[in-house]
Specification:
The complex is a heterodimer of chains A (499) and B (565). With 499 residues, chain A is mostly helical. Chain A is 57% helix and 8% strand. In chain A, the strands form six sheets. Chain A has a two-stranded parallel sheet with strand order 1-8. A two-stranded antiparallel ribbon of chain A has the order 2-6. In chain A, strands 4-5 form a two-stranded antiparallel ribbon. In chain A, helix 1 (11-19) packs across helix 13, helix 3 (48-55) crosses helix 5 (71-82) and helix 16 (315-338) packs across helix 17 (345-377). The longest helix of chain A is centred in the middle third of the chain and has 35 residues, at 252-286. Chain B has three domains: 57-195, Rossmann fold, CATH 3.40.50; 200-382, no CATH class; 396-564, no CATH class. Chain B is 46% helix and 13% strand. Chain B has helices spanning 6-13, 27-40, 48-51, 57-66, 84-94, 119-135, 147-152, 159-169, 175-188, 201-212, 233-240, 244-259, 266-278, 283-287, 293-296, 301-304, 325-328, 339-351, 357-365, 369-382, 390-399, 404-418, 466-472, 498-510, 520-535, and strands spanning 73-78, 102-105, 108-111, 140-146, 190-194, 427-428, 431-433, 446-449, 454-461, 478-483, 493-496, 541-546, 549-556, 559-564. Chain B has a five-stranded mixed sheet, with helices on both faces. In chain B, helix 1 (6-13) runs antiparallel to helix 2 (27-40) and helix 4 (57-66) packs parallel to helix 5. The chains are: A mainly alpha (499), B alpha+beta (565). The interface between A and B is large, with 54 and 73 residues.
């Protein structure tokens, strides 16, 4: 009988599956939205002529007026405004997805990383769902955008062989949604995500095409971000983001917001650590010798763990593991001898865990980046420029989207105990329940949710009720400035319905 | 002799932020508090009937009291402070009975605040009402209820909900729907007064100031011998605000606030007015030896209305302004220098220095030029009804139903100006700036060529049945400009409030930039985008601006064709 060499599984792949992230790569939400649109409509486009036009506009312009000085620069500028991502040389990679023809069919897996599959498959329930049909109808109308009509005519449509394109299997996030119907994430997906997209379809009739596209990307970003928070949260905890307004002055509110965001970033490493330990235990369970070695308190015996393979695309990962393991083992056993202490089983497990984590540590960085990118897309992680500490902040784009969704929902789907469902209080209750967006601690429902043991690690960052009431005041002012809130008295303000 | 004027104590109690005082706007505490003040004033204090501000709702109350009202169900809905409970209290008073949470008198059952009533009890009352209808037992209901509770009670109302109550809550009802509502109301005997639609600002300001300012309570009463009477801003305010012109000017400011999106139910209106009237002060503040005369000018009604926050200089305690004052900051130009206007203001001050009130004290004692100018600028914003003040012009356009065409013309001209058309066209011009160009810099070079000019019409809503209008005095106005739409499409509409109008006036008169539209840019963008996609039927060409040239963009043989338009 041949014994197979024990192996640790690829932690990055495992973590992607655990967190529901299709690819742990840096990617913008606008690009995710583009990929989703292409998959939803079953076609992409050959955008080479647009790229040529950007590179050599003078060669691709015809007509008597094409010779006017400045015309090529203007055309190039106009194309620049349609561009989402560029190559290092500045050449447009991806354009705003007004029509699927403007979504490139080249290097799809490299540019889009199959992220659109997550959106179609997980957020919309597949291309054949009723929800997807509604979204298809709205997004199909984007081709009426005047700029789309001009520039899409330069692109050739290319059907996608399969509706899912490169991804034939279920997306990781969809797999998580389906994993167990009783999980909080699954019920969040069935409730919040489905209701939100239904409300978005209803709300979109009152929006301009550009506004539809903007809110579309923001909502994708929001759902992907909150879904990740669900997976990063410790057992029993739930997503929570304490949001300030973008122009909030430095002080305890901003500090709290920064700290909460930083805590979620730190959770990416914590999740990887936990998974690394799970791998150690799994290998130990399958291999009695290795399990016994953990109890041996002997460096020579413990070094058997060096023989465990590391499944990874990179040979370097295994080398990094072996090297780190040996170094760490030596250090810890020396220290134990110096202090005349023994290495317990737990100590030994931690040595292996940390060594295994070492080659995969960059993945935690990628997950942090994904958290930031989806938050940025949802317009609630910022500031978007400069080196300021990132924080949760609710800006006009997200606030506008949330207010429109709120007033477009079936009244009974609004999650509040307020009788005035469209009141500002009803709105605050609802966005806390759906996304964990906390504006004030002056709401009973939010306080009850925060009072659990599992929320304690986050609770310590939050300011007191009086301070957060000032935050609520700022948010209300922002809503009033956006003309989304009508005040009927000092105690009564109601979100203005979309027309 | 220094004395405390009980009218000041009464008006101060109407300030909703006046912590520690007995709020006389709360129906349950009002009677006892007024009795105490009246007692302390030795009778020199208005009777309850003198303090009452007459309104259209009184007619309904009288009709119910006399048994001539044709309604089986009267629903008073709105927000806290709208006067719903007060109407119930007046009815009970006219029958000389106590007002309880549920009061029965003859055929009538009065529920003074259904929002406070247990759901089962409310359901039971409606059950009785339904049974009474089928058994011909006379039972009529007067119910005061917040809108949220009313919506949640929709199943209790049966047919009346769909036919009368739900349409009455719609803020954008048109004439046709209002006519249907009227018919249904009469048929079912159900009247719904939605106070959210009520516009009671002008009548409220007139009534309140009339009841507060009678000379017998002030300079001919307890203030006659007060040592601080010469410098007292409250007394000066009382004198000024019995002048009809001053009253209308102050009403203009509050109307502006109302039409800028800050609806003013009676209690809120009363609170803001009370703060302006007292300047946030009590008699003891004015009598304090620490307070200088010049600092008291800040508490004249035209300056006090702009106080937003903080400790007032010279005062021992914190002034608590009404929250709505923050919105009035848009009108406060006290720190904005306009050299020509400042010279006029200073010249007027020097040529005719005031003799009375804190201004007279300032003229005698002197004050820093900056402080003096700040006060004079605030006064110029409020006093005098000059049409040169942009916010007044915007208010006049919006308020005056007869000038709706002027309003439409101004909005169309402003939008065309944004698009670079300087003529006085009455329709949106065929070449329209790319809506996205309003907010996205990259696209400012792009225009859209509409097939033809797009005409807009002005629409006011909500329309309400005539019997509702009688009770609500005036109906709050939403003004929209509406473009025609293709069949089956919702017509694009741009809601025009007083702030947007003011900004449009700024664009036209002072050449302000599009950026000054602020949050309204998105509204305008949304409206114009929908004009392009619905009103113009999508038949729109893209035009590139290049200096004086306009170039149409089209695709021909896989090349981009540019032709001069």
């Amino acid at each position: 009988m041949t014994m197979t060499t024990p192996a640790f599984k690829n932690l990055t792949t495992l973590a992607q599956q655990r967190l529901g992230i299709q690819q742990a790569q840096t990617i913008t939400a606008e690009t995710i939205a583009s990929d989703a649109i292409a998959r939803l409509h079953g076609r992409r486009g050959d955008v080479q002529r647009l790229v040529d036009l950007w590179q050599r506009p003078e060669a691709d312009l015809v007509g008597t007026a094409a010779l006017l000085t400045g015309a090529p620069e203007r055309i190039r500028g106009l194309l620049g405004g349609l561009t989402v991502a560029r190559s290092r040389l500045g050449t447009p990679h991806t354009f705003l997805p007004y029509t699927p023809e403007l979504i490139t069919d080249r290097n799809v897996s490299q540019i889009f990383r199959d992220m659109g599959a997550t959106v179609v498959d997980a957020l919309w329930g597949g291309v054949d769902s009723e929800l997807a049909a509604g979204i298809r109808e709205v997004t199909g109308g984007w081709s009426f955008h005047p700029l789309a009509r001009v520039f899409a005519a330069l692109c050739v449509a290319r059907p996608i062989p399969s509706p899912r394109g490169a991804t034939e299997s279920r997306s990781y996030l969809r797999a998580l949604f389906d994993e167990t119907t009783a999980s909080p994430l699954a019920s969040w997906a069935r409730g919040t995500v489905t209701e939100d997209w239904t409300a978005w379809v209803a709300a979109s009739s009152g929006m301009s095409i550009d506004e539809q596209l903007q809110t579309f990307s923001v909502l994708i970003g929001l759902h992907l971000h909150v879904a990740l928070q669900w997976r990063l949260a410790p057992s029993g905890a739930r997503p929570l983001s304490f949001c300030v307004t973008p122009d909030a002055a430095a002080g305890p509110l901003v500090t709290a917001s920064c700290n909460v965001y930083q805590w979620w970033q730190g959770r990416t490493l914590a999740v990887l650590q936990a998974m690394s330990l799970e791998q150690v235990d799994a290998v130990a369970d399958e291999n009695p010798d290795l399990s016994a070695a953990l109890d041996a308190n002997d460096a020579a015996v413990l070094s058997r763990w060096r023989l465990v393979r590391v499944e990874s695309a990179r040979q370097k990962s295994a080398d990094l593991f072996h090297q780190r393991y040996q170094d760490e083992l030596t250090r810890r056993t020396d220290a134990a001898q110096t202090h005349q202490m023994q290495l317990s089983r737990n100590d030994a497990r931690e040595i292996v865990r940390d060594a295994l984590l070492h080659p995969f540590a960059p993945s935690a960085e990628k997950f942090r980046d994904y958290l930031r990118q989806t938050g940025r897309a949802a317009a609630y992680v910022g500031p978007d420029r400069g080196y300021s500490r990132k924080r949760y902040q609710i800006d006009a784009r997200l606030l506008g989207l949330l207010a429109r969704l709120h007033t477009s929902r079936d009244e009974m789907k609004i999650r509040t105990s307020e009788e005035e469902r469209y009141s500002i209080e009803g709105f605050l209750d609802d966005i806390f329940d759906r996304y964990g967006i906390l504006i004030t601690r002056g709401r009973e429902a939010a306080e009850a949710a925060l009072a659990t043991e599992s929320m304690k690690p986050l609770l310590r960052f939050l300011p007191n009720e009086a301070l957060t009431e000032a935050n609520r005041h700022d948010v209300e002012q922002l809503l009033e400035g956006l003309r989304l809130l009508r005040r009927y008295s000092d105690d009564s303000a109601v979100l203005v319905p979309m027309r | 002799m220094d004395a405390t004027n009980q009218i000041v104590a009464y008006v101060a109690s109407l300030r909703t932020q006046n912590q520690g005082a007995n709020p006389s706007y709360v129906q349950e505490t009002r009677g006892a508090f007024l009795a105490k003040l009246r007692d302390e004033a030795h009778g020199n204090f208005p009777e309850e009937s003198d303090l009452h501000v007459a309104s259209g709702i009184d007619g309904l109350v009288d009709a119910i009291a006399k048994g001539t009202a044709p309604w089986r169900l009267v629903v008073l809905t709105g927000d806290a402070g709208d006067g719903k409970t007060q109407a119930c209290a007046r009815l009970a008073a006219s029958w000389q009975i106590e007002l309880d949470p549920v009061t029965e008198h003859g055929e009538w059952v009065i529920v003074k605040d259904a929002s406070e009533l247990p759901r089962d009890q409310l359901a039971g009352i409606f059950e009785r009402w339904h049974q009474a209808a089928s058994s011909q037992v006379p039972l009529r209901l007067l119910i005061a209820i917040n809108e949220g509770r009313l919506r949640s009670a929709c199943s209790l109302l049966g047919e009346a909900w769909d036919a009368v109550v739900a349409p009455s809550l719609d803020g954008l009802l048109d004439d046709e729907a209002a006519e249907r509502l009227e018919q249904s109301s009469l048929r079912l005997g159900v009247l719904v007064l939605n106070f959210r639609h009520r516009l009671f600002v002008r009548a409220g300001v007139r009534g309140l100031l009339y009841s507060w300012t009678a000379a017998r309570y002030w300079e001919r009463g307890v203030c006659a011998n007060c040592t601080s009477r010469e410098r007292c801003p409250i007394l000066a305010n009382a004198r000024d605000l019995r002048n009809v012109d001053r009253v209308e000017e102050l009403a203009d400011v509050l109307m502006w606030l109302h039409l800028a999106g800050q609806r003013l139910p009676f209690r809120r209106l009363q609170g803001i007015l009370a703060f302006a009237f007292t300047g946030g002060l009590n008699c003891s503040d004015v009598l304090s030896a620490d307070v200088t005369s010049s600092s008291l000018v800040r508490h004249r009604y035209y300056a006090g209305i702009f106080i937003t926050t903080g400790r007032e200089p010279g005062l021992a305690r914190q002034v608590q302004p009404e929250p709505a004052a923050v919105l009035l900051a848009a009108l406060d130009l006290s720190r904005v220098a306009d050299r020509a206007q400042d010279e006029v203001l200073l010249a007027e001050w020097r040529n005719a220095p005031p003799l009375e009130g804190p201004e007279g004290a300032v003229a005698r004692e002197g004050v820093s030029p900056e402080e003096l100018l700040a006060t004079l600028r605030q006064r110029a914003q409020v006093v005098g009804r000059s049409a040169a003040v942009p916010w007044r012009r915007a208010l006049q356009l919006l308020e005056d139903a007869g000038r709706v065409e002027d309003l439409r013309a101004l909005v169309v001209r402003a939008i065309n100006r944004i698009d670079g058309h300087l003529d006085n066209s009455t329709a949106l011009q065929p070449i329209l700036s790319d809506p996205e160009g309003i907010v996205t810099f990259d696209r400012r070079a792009v225009d859209l060529l509409l097939p033809a000019p797009v005409a807009l019409r002005a629409r006011r809503s909500p329309a309400v049945p005539s019997m509702v209008k009688q009770c609500l005095d005036e109906v709050a106005t939403v003004v929209e400009l509406v473009a025609a739409a293709a069949p089956g499409q919702a017509a694009p509409a741009l809601a025009v409030d007083v702030l947007l109008l003011e900004r449009f006036i700024g664009l036209l008169d002072r050449g302000a930039s599009v950026v000054s539209l602020g949050g309204y840019r998105n509204d305008l963008l949304r409206f114009l985008s929908r004009v392009v996609t619905t009103a113009a039927g999508g038949d729109v060409a893209v035009v590139l601006r290049l200096g004086d040239h306009r170039l149409r963009l089209e695709v021909s043989d896989k090349k981009l064709r540019l032709e001069s338009v």
